[in-house]
């Protein structure tokens, strides 16, 4: 036994020795690779430091050798990152060993070659740096000075600060701070600066980005703002989004206008290239607006502009302009009272504008006296905490001056959105309707009546200056008539005197719902929209506990929390008093959350942009439901039980769409139409996907009780024409033709479209993947109300002769039309065809497009803001004439070579456009 044990031990010892010998031999190359990769990383890090020193010494390198060296350093940085990914020192030894034997290019050898190249680059860089330090530097490129620009009249009061900002654009500093109390006009200066950049003849910026940071700003939120302005795609993580932004802006000149900064922001984490200044011939500048001078300093601003209240003369001019100069000066008593009221505004521009607008409707001396007394009493009874709240009593006066309780309630609802948020008018109107803020209406078309009232309220709020025009970041259109926003001072005031109790933490970067019981108790409206509430550690456990025991909200807004925890949705069922629930884009997957079916008082439900597979029959428990939105559902199919819609007797608006044009289950909508036919239900607005024109005919027979507002048609196989737009089919389809507002046609065999029908409410038309389409013609009368047209992948279309008859067209998108040769058909060459409202023109993937007009004539685009062109190699001449309205130049996003080969009618025409090379 002992001999056997000794033999075993000897064998183990011998085997261990062999293993040590073998693995020791094999380990040595891996150890060498580790060492060489580390040496290479250190060498590249030294190169990056050398590059930084060179750019500081020579911020505008013009020598070819210098530019070549900078490019090679960037390539070296990319190569070492790739090599480190291949050679992961953190992997298990066996995995690395296998990789070593199967690798066709051993890491150690590659690292050795790159190390030699890095050392050579270091020597070359040191020589370039030495030469740069010995050579006097020329000043950076300057833009035109402010006095050389014809600035619009509305910039008069901000002219001194605007001039200082414009001079900053021409010097070598990288960041400028603009600071002052809320309401003094910092945002106005940034907007004027953005617009003024479009007037500069030799503007050095490829992109001018005006984004709002606001209170509680997070990296993710600021990234979303930047992405929206640049028009690039969303990324799944902050790191990936930062890399995308950095990759897009790295080789471009840009001006970042950062509004509403409350604390230092790490712009590198956002993806904004650093440092600011003139780097490698690229101009990178930032203007930071904040209430705090210290914050501007923390953001790296050496130069700063202090903004304060207006002096007495300028304050009076601003007040008088908004209140009505002619009316005030007509009566000496009113003039004296007006000067006293203007003095009560203490030179604050925001207060002068809003109070002035409120006084524009006051006609008698007694009215002016009453207002002066009311303002004085309001200010005496208020004890605002801090200078930024000093305007609250004046905002309250303007709020009380609105014409109706309805307008006041609608104004307050705007404060439910995040600070400095650009609110879509369509989204706002939908909210007001769902909250029941608009009056009950006995009109046959309730939805249309509500929308008309809502838009008149928006116009009144904008006219009062309590609500400002916003920016539509999606198309970089500024200013925009599609969005509105609240000034942060006005929003704070609105939340302070809103009736009842509201819990508003919108856009605050929350990762879990508020835990304080006091915040939830007696809250009528809860807005946690645009946060990142997710199933983080501890959040789900707390939700549904004591904090919600006494909560009785009537409205809850949770939209745009993309990973809302299931536990949170389940807890909503205890809020039986809810009448309004918005769960748009909250990450609901597969099963419909049946807990919602317990909310028997619910009148408004929005579940759009989720991944819901089917609707449960329990949804019919919501007998009071009036508005059900399920747009842009992700999944391939959505199952709707037969009889569901007929049981929802109070339903007025129903929208059911998938997000993909090819992912709709066949005949999924048949149960809906069956229910509508059998029950005699009345719907003011219906939106559906349809697979056949026979379904359109069935809907038309239900009109006017059922109004089809949005119709998306797809897979119309065998249909060579489109009856929906044809006057020939007006008898059987007239009900739909008269009510449809939006129409899309995708993935069909349509060969010809004759659009000669009277469609009085049609605003949006989209054509996509119509591979057999040959011709499209549209009569002048039929298209009188069109707002948007998109045509995609129409391989055989020759021209769009009908486009010139679309006076309300705002967005024209043509993609994948392989047979298109001209955008407009032949006409009178001496006539200028005008697109009065077109703002976006996208020409993508049109390989045969040769001209905008076949007759060589010109087109006028008074409101054009943005042009996108890619894949149009034959288009060599732009015969466009945008209006010289003092607005920003038209951005043309295009390839560098395509832009360089363009032929222009004159230099004046070319000066209207600014290329954004991508």
TrEMBL record:
One of its GO terms (biological process) is innate immune response-activating signaling pathway. Residues 30-86 form a coiled coil. It comes from the Eukaryota. Residues 171-326 form the NB-ARC domain. Residues 416-492 form the Disease resistance protein winged helix domain. Keywords: ATP-binding, Coiled coil, Nucleotide-binding, Plant defense, Repeat. One of its GO terms (molecular function) is ATP binding. Belongs to the disease resistance NB-LRR family. PANTHER family: NB-ARC DOMAIN-CONTAINING PROTEIN-RELATED. This is Uncharacterized protein. It comes from Leersia perrieri.
């Amino acid at each position: 036994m002992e001999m056997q044990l000794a033999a075993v031990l000897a064998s183990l010892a011998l085997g261990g020795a062999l293993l040590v010998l073998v693995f020791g031999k094999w380990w040595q190359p891996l150890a060498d690779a580790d060492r060489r990769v580390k040496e290479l990383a250190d060498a590249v890090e030294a190169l990056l430091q050398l590059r930084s020193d060179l750019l500081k010494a020579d911020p505008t390198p013009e020598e070819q050798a210098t530019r070549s060296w900078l490019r090679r350093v960037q390539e070296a940085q990319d190569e070492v990152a790739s090599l480190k990914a291949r050679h992961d020192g953190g992997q298990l030894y066996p995995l690395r060993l296998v990789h070593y034997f199967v690798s066709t290019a051993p890491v150690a050898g590659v690292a050795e070659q790159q190390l030699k190249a890095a050392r050579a680059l270091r020597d070359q860089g040191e020589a370039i740096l030495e030469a740069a330090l010995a050579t006097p530097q020329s000043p950076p490129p300057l833009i035109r000075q402010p006095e050389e620009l014809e600035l619009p009249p509305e910039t008069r009061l901000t002219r001194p600060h605007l001039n200082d900002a414009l001079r900053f654009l021409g010097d070598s500093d990288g960041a400028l701070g603009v600071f002052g109390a809320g309401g003094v006009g910092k945002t106005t200066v940034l907007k004027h600066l953005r617009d003024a950049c479009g007037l500069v003849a030799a503007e050095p910026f490829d992109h001018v980005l005006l984004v709002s940071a606001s209170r509680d700003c997070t990296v993710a939120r600021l990234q979303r703002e930047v992405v929206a302005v640049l028009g690039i795609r969303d990324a799944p993580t902050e790191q990936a989004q930062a890399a995308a932004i950095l990759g897009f802006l790295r080789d471009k000149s840009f001006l970042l206008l950062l509004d509403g900064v409350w604390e230092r922001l790490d712009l590198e984490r956002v993806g904004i290239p650093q440092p600011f200044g003139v780097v490698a011939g690229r101009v990178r500048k930032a203007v930071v607006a904040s209430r705090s001078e210290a914050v501007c300093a923390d953001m790296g601003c050496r130069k700063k502009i202090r903004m304060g209240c207006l002096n007495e003369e300028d304050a009076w001019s601003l007040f008088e302009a908004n209140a009505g100069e002619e009316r005030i000066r007509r009566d000496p008593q009113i003039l004296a009272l007006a000067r006293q009221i203007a003095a009560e505004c203490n030179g604050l521009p925001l207060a002068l504008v809003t109070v002035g607008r409120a006084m524009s409707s006051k006609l008698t001396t007694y009215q002016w006296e009453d207002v002066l007394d009311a303002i004085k009493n309001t200010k005496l009874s208020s004890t605002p905490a801090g200078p930024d709240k000093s305007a609250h009593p004046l905002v309250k006066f303007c709020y009380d001056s609105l014409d109706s309780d309805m307008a006041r309630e609608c104004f307050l609802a705007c404060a439910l959105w995040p600070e400095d948020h650009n609110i879509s008018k369509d989204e706002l109107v939908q909210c007001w309707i769902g909250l029941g803020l608009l009056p009950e209406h006995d009109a046959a078309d309730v939805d249309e009546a509500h929308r008309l009232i809502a838009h008149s309220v928006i116009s009144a709020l904008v006219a009062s200056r309590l609500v400002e025009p916003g920016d539509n970041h999606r198309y970089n259109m500024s200013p925009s008539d599609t969005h509105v926003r609240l000034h942060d001072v006005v929003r704070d005031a609105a939340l302070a005197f809103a009736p009842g109790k509201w819990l508003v933490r919108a856009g605050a970067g929350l990762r879990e719902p508020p835990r304080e019981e006091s915040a939830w108790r007696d809250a009528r409206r809860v807005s946690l929209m645009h946060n990142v509430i997710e199933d983080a550690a501890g959040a789900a456990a707390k939700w549904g506990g004591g904090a919600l025991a006494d909560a009785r909200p009537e409205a809850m807004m949770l939209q745009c929390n993309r990973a809302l925890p299931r536990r949170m949705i389940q807890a909503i069922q205890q809020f039986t008093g809810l009448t309004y629930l918005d769960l748009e884009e909250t990450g609901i997957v597969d099963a419909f959350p049946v807990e919602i079916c317990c909310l028997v008082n619910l009148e408004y439900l929005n579940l759009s942009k989720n991944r819901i597979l089917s609707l449960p029959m329990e949804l019919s428990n919501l007998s009071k439901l009036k508005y059900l939105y399920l747009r842009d559902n992700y999944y391939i199919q959505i199952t709707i039980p037969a009889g569901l819609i007929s049981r929802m007797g109070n339903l007025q608006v129903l929208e059911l769409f998938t997000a993909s044009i090819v992912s709709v289950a066949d005949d999924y909508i048949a149960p809906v139409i069956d229910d509508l036919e059998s029950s005699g239900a009345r719907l003011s607005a219906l939106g559906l996907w349809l697979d056949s024109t026979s379904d359109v005919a069935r809907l038309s027979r239900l009109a006017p009780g059922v109004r089809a507002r949005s119709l998306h048609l797809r897979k119309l196989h065998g249909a060579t024409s489109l009856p929906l737009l044809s006057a020939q089919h007006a008898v059987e389809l007239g009900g739909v033709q008269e009510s449809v507002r939006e129409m899309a046609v995708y993935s069909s065999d349509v060969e010809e479209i004759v659009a000669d029908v009277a469609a009085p409410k049609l605003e949006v038309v989209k054509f996509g993947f119509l591979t057999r389409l040959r011709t499209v013609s549209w009569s002048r009368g039929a298209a009188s109300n069109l707002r948007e047209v998109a045509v995609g992948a129409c391989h055989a279309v020759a021209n769009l002769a009908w486009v010139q008859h679309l006076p309300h067209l705002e967005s024209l998108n043509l993609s994948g039309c392989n047979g298109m040769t001209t955008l407009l058909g032949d006409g009178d060459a001496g006539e200028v065809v005008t697109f009065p409202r077109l703002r976006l023109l996208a020409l993508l993937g049109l390989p045969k497009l040769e001209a905008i007009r076949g007759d060589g004539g010109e087109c006028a685009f008074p409101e054009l803001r943005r042009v996108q062109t890619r894949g149009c190699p034959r288009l060599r001449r732009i015969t466009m004439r945008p209006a010289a309205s003092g607005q920003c130049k038209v951005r043309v996003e295009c390839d560098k070579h395509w832009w360089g080969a363009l032929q222009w009618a004159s230099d004046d025409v070319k000066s209207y456009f600014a290329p954004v090379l991508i």
